[in-house]
Each structure stands twice: as structure tokens, then as C-alpha cells.
Amino acid sequence: MFGIGNVPPKVKNAKLGKWFDSLNDQDRVKLNRYLDFADDTDASTFIVTVMMAAIDDHNYKFAAKVADTLPALKLTPVQEFDINEAVILAFFNTERYDECLERCDKGLALIKDPSVEKHLRSRTSDGSYPEAVNCRNYKINVIVGVKNDFDGAPAILDQFVADGLITEEEARYRKESIKTYKLQRTFDGIFSKVPGKDQ
Q1: pLDDT at 30
Q2: CA 95 to CA 78: how far, in whole Å?
């Protein structure tokens, strides 16, 4: 086991020694599993790459633990956004849906910063927003898929259009998909109540 002071080189390089010392032995072992994937350029990059390695490994609980133990860091808006995007995945996949929604709202606010917008648009060849914008996508996932707020979703999509996050065509497509999903859920609910149906 790691002891106090036995900080792995990558953690030292990222200047996260105190954070490492705050972890219990079990979490240090889990962290060690992902150190090969960690980028120790700076603290924020290290955290994002470790969290994403854990998420890719379907170890969402550890990714959420990293999110819960994040040290106070001086972050640029872009760094804060990237960490937040990873936290959204961790919270959604550990069914911490209310916290996930809070993080989605935080991310949507951060996108309004010009540096974050440029950061995202630089990922596509045509300068549009990429498909994988977690704060946008998972807000709808939680609102519709978890909260079943079918009536509230269209207004959120309209706001996404107004903010330039999706096109009107994408909004129409998503609204139709939500209607279809709602009908299917209604049908499934009715079918499950048919007398004599196996439960």
C-alpha cells in the first residue's frame, strides 16, 4: 500500500500531493490503476484524464470519488469546464441525478465564456459545437429519461437553439424523438397494467 509521503511521480508533477495524501489506501490503489493514462501537465489535466480513464473503465464510483475530493484549484474557465464535463458523466452514471443537473447548468453557464466557446468549436472542422457536449446532452437525458418531464424538455431545446448550441432542425428532431419516447412509455405503462399479465 501507499503510505503518507509515498506520492507517485505523476501526482507530484501535477502538484496534487496533498490531495493524494487525503485519499484512503483503497482509493490510492484505484488511482494507481489509471496513472498510465494520466497527463501530468497540470492539476486540472491530470484530474480530467484520470476521471475519463475511470469512466472508460466503467468505474464511475471512483470517478465520482475524485469529483467529491477535488482540491481547491485556480482554474481557467476552459479547465473548469473540462473537469465539469467529466463530473457530469460520473454523477449521471452513479445515479446522482440532481447533482448531475446542477453540473449541467454550471457547464451551460461556462459555455457563455468566449474562451470555452472557442475551445469547443475548435473540436469540429466547421466550427460548430461537437456532438459530445455533456452539459447540453445530459441535461435532456436527465429531464426526459429520469425525471420524465416531457412537457419541460421543448423549452430547454428552444433555449439551446437561442444559445446556438443546436440548430432548429436538431431541435425539431429531438422534440419528435421525445414525443415518440413519451408515447412508448405511456404504452408500456398501460400494457404493464393489463390484468393477468405476468409481473
Answers
A1: 96
A2: 26
User: Which is more confident, 116 or 72?
Assistant: 116
pLDDT score of 8 = 96
Q: Considering Cα of 4, then 5, then 8, then 10, what sign does the dihedral take?
A: positive
Single pTM value for the model: 0.88
How many residues comprise the chain? 199
d(CA 98, CA 104): 10
Q: 100 with 64: CB under 8 angstroms?
A: no
Angle at 103 between CA 97 and CA 134, to 5 degrees: 90
Averaged pLDDT of the chain? 91
Q: Is 131 left (phi over 0), alpha (psi -120 to 50) or beta?
A: alpha
Instruction: Classify each residue of 125-160 as buried b or exposed e, where b means 16 or more C-beta atoms within 10 Å of its C-beta.
Output: eeeebeeebbbbbbbbbbbbeeeeebeebeebbeeb
Residue 188's pLDDT is 59
Residues near 142 by Cβ (< 8 Å), separated by ≥ 6?
Answer: 92, 97, 100, 101, 104
Measured between alpha carbons, how far is 50 from 70 in angstroms, rounded to an integer? 12
